[in-house]
Design goal:
- GO terms for molecular function: oxidoreductase activity.
- Keywords: Oxidoreductase.
- It comes from Brachybacterium avium.
- With 202 residues, the protein is α/β, with parallel strands linked by helices.
- It has one domain (2-191): NAD(P)-binding Rossmann-like Domain (Rossmann fold), CATH 3.40.50.720.
- The protein is built from eight helices and eight strands.
- It has helices at 10-21, 46-52, 65-72, 74-77, 102-109, 124-127, 145-157, 175-191; strands at residues 2-6, 25-30, 42-45, 55-58, 81-84, 114-118, 138-142, 165-169.
- Strands 3-2-1-4-5-6-7-8 form an eight-stranded mixed sheet, sandwiched between helices.
- Helix 1 (10-21) links the parallel strand 1 and strand 2.
- It is globular, with a radius of gyration of 16 Å.
- The N and C termini lie far apart (33 Å).
């Protein structure tokens, strides 16, 4: 895949490294690409990154994702697969969209895009190296079956086994994993580590 990751923070960098190791071509998108020459991967402007990619990943800060992607524009995003890995919360871990989710709002904002929510329930270093922990689970939400199958293929490339990937259903279900972010923050504080994840047991 030719993957354009919007954002250059720790989550974006972790995902970029994992995707590159899996053999994918990766470009990071920044508002100020000239200031990120220190990064070992290609960095371009946000809109340029989106236009040049087959798959777009939203790894911008969740509280400003809608505004930043509006600047990228619907023409650049088009009908591509848009993977949303961000959590829309305040610095004090209050949800910005308590009755919805960022994933749903991005699908409404870009109705032609195929939005899939995933990789937002654990830290970046966990979702690109799931084997570092005991078996755990990862989730996908989205309305387009083919888009979700492409995301599942990417998750497999990152090391997630088939039985660890849980398809929750349409993009409306993104509310569940996004709201879990509050619990994740509580756990990381209580256990003093971000190297943790949850597992679905049945």
């Amino acid at each position: 895949m030719d993957i354009g990751i919007l954002g250059t923070g720790s989550v974006a960098q972790a995902l970029a490294g994992g995707c590159a190791r899996a053999g994918h071509t990766v470009t990071l998108g920044s508002r100020h690409p000239e200031s990120r020459a220190d990064l070992p991967l290609t960095v371009a402007g946000l809109a340029e990154t989106a236009r040049g990619a087959d798959v777009i990943v939203n790894a911008t800060p969740g509280a400003s994702s809608e505004e930043l992607l509006a600047q990228v524009g619907a023409d650049a995003i088009g009908d591509k697969l848009l993977i949303d890995v961000a959590n829309a919360a305040t610095a004090s871990f209050d949800l910005l969209y308590p009755d919805s989710s960022l994933g749903e709002r991005l699908q409404q904002q870009f109705p032609d895009a195929k939005v899939v929510k995933t990789m937002n329930t654990c830290a970046g270093k966990v979702f690109v190296d799931p084997g570092a922990l005991d078996p755990s689970s990862i989730f996908v939400s989205g309305d387009d079956a083919r888009a979700k199958s492409r995301v599942v293929a990417l998750l497999r490339d990152l090391g997630w086994p088939e039985d660890a990937i849980v398809d929750l259903g349409g993009i409306a279900t993104a509310k569940g994993p996004e709201h879990y972010f509050i619990m994740w923050a509580c756990l990381t504080d209580a256990l003093a580590t971000t190297e943790l994840n949850l597992r679905v047991v049945r």
